[in-house]
């Protein structure tokens, strides 16, 4: 495989730009060895870190070859740690100079940034953001099209076979959600860290959404089969995305019918919209099943609404195949912000600094990020282009200002940091298109694909 490299990267916002120390131009920026016995140039550096013991090296300055790359720097830091503790096990590190990742030799980095080698250079090291462990994949019966890792207790998935599934961990399915008549396209955990009984939502190509309740503390020797307690009807075409309001009182959904519907979760607030349904199974009548109707429809998109999120109580964001990202005022039911991308969009997430950055992916290999706090500009502030096919998922880490993941039809999940244009890590657990991905328990990435695998990549250190 040819080595991947990004095609473009919009410059970092000024607050992330390195502080450069201008020096008069010299014939060479690097100091030659004084004894003349070696042509290897060296530079004085001091390694610093915010990592706890036992990951701290001595703070004194040392001279190192200027042609070292991050791999050589990582070997050096591991050697320094082993000199303190012979039981230290080597592991990969990443390095930052003035807040920017080093992704070339030190010499090339200093020349590119105009940083003088006359001073003692301070290099910060962190643990490399990459999975330390790959769990054995779970094997549902069909392609895994949707995943939600917002609960630390379980993973929720949706599949082409029309079933939702709840997984306690790798290979352990505890609940099967049955009732949809076509593939499940999107799933959402409505109260991820709530009480024992958890409410779930699923969206499907069968034009409905369904609400479920499960008891996560129930001990079962085999997957418990669960029927939805409420069916939500109203979309005229496949439902592509579902998202819950932060307080868990409502959900919203985006559809191929170009609309966004809002639905009540709490039955007592929507009594007029409920219809009791009974069905016969093996000659007996089962308990009633509720049906609900949308109480608000947001209209404005002209093509499929592929992704919706509800990050603040008063605002919904949507992405569409009509090339637009829209922000909606929930109370007024109106579109208040438009961002046009130029590509059909598949996925959307809000996060990063102040939970304000908008990341999207679509019908090209590029992950684009906008900062809506910057008025008067329609250009993304970052663009990452190491994928080779459509991007299906973008997801911010909920505890980091810098980190996000992306998944693609190229079969890869990539981990990104806003401080570098290159992916920090590439996860290649799938043999076919990756259709969905999410963070789980803050240190794991879960992903589902057309290869009918649910994969878990764990022990990812994030500072």
Automatic annotation (TrEMBL):
Keywords: Nucleus, Repeat, Ribosome biogenesis, rRNA processing, WD repeat. One of its GO terms (molecular function) is ribonucleoprotein complex binding. CDD domains: WD40 (cd00200). Pfam families: NLE, WD40. InterPro entries: NLE, WD40/YVTN_repeat-like_dom_sf, WD40_PAC1, WD40_repeat_CS, WD40_repeat_dom_sf, WD40_rpt, WDR12/Ytm1. GO terms for cellular component: nucleolus; nucleoplasm; preribosome, large subunit precursor. It is found in: Nucleus, Nucleolus; Nucleus, Nucleoplasm. SMART domains: WD40. GO terms for biological process: maturation of 5.8S rRNA from tricistronic rRNA transcript (SSU-rRNA, 5.8S rRNA, LSU-rRNA); maturation of LSU-rRNA from tricistronic rRNA transcript (SSU-rRNA, 5.8S rRNA, LSU-rRNA). PROSITE patterns: WD_REPEATS_1, WD_REPEATS_2, WD_REPEATS_REGION. Residues 1-40 are annotated as: Disordered. WD repeats lie at residues 177-222, 232-273, 298-338, 384-426. Residues 43-110 form the NLE domain. Belongs to the WD repeat WDR12/YTM1 family. Required for maturation of ribosomal RNAs and formation of the large ribosomal subunit. HAMAP family: WDR12 (MF_03029). This is Ribosome biogenesis protein WDR12 homolog. It comes from Medicago truncatula (Barrel medic). The gene is 11445282.
